[in-house]
Amino acid sequence: MTSSKPLDLIGVGAPIMDILAGVPDDFLAHAGGEKGGMVMVDANEIARLVALLPVKPAMSTGGSSANTTFNTARLGLRAAFIGKLGNDDAADAYKASFASAGVDTSRFKHGAEPNGRCLALTTPDAQRTMRTCLGAHGTFSAEDILPSDFDGARHVHIEGYVVFNSKLADAILDGARAAGCTLSLDLASFEVVRESREWLLGQLRKGIDVVSSNEDEIRALFPDAADANSEEDYRALGARLAEFGGVAAVKLGKDGAWIVRGKGGGVESHRIAPVRVTDAVDSTGAGDAWCAGFLSGWLRDKPLPVCGAIASLLGAETVRHMGPLIPDAHWAQTSSRVAELLR
User: Fold this and answer.
1) What is the pTM of this model?
2) Domain Carbohydrate kinase PfkB: where (predicted)?
């Protein structure tokens, strides 16, 4: 679909530099908390854990909405990003990486603190456990959001992690709605949902066009379904989420996804088949890539099964590589397969 607006999508979230390391399961005892979750920590805690790593870590741009935005630009959407960078070399490298991918970087904010960082610990089952220090992004506030930030945009995508600061999240969503943008939200983490469930339900009642979750997140949103574990359970939970009026996507990892739209007697449910992967090494960024694939189809008015197929393809390719982004050397083949689905 063509549009007179200069931007197809603006992502809003944390421009975090990822520190990536493969670790054995027993290393997670040093980090505490639940496997597969995300916990906010300070810079000293990240430094302590890095010093304990059995291997030298790799670095990559990261952040949930940022990964999604980066990938939508790679897929040909006109994209920009709003987030607060720091005052150090990591921030400069981050901005340069986004510019090289074709993302409009003019809407970044700038803070006086070092750039945010996230230590992503990947265990042999390819699951990642994250410890995040927000750095400059921790000073990102409602006062940083201007009405002009959303000028010329069709759609705004936010990450669940923003919800930890409800005033900031309100300012983003209010500004996007005032600008006439459609909205998408990736719930991002079961911790986010547990801590912010009532706020999330209130925003869903106001209207969000696309909401994506994984199994843990949607169970946290609907705690009376804590024992859900079957395909039909997740389809039913997707239908509950779609009752708020938007498209609901329930990501099931290696088992694919459900996409549900409509309510009452007009519900349509689509089972999205997984793209099978036998060499998964790291799940970091897979859900973000899934969202990018889905939105790249949805913003082009493609049928939901096509949007889901693109999403599944991107998520599956992402887990074959360390870090949240598909390496450039593998991107040409991936984008060619996406182009075939978009025809």
Assistant:
1) 0.91
2) 55-325
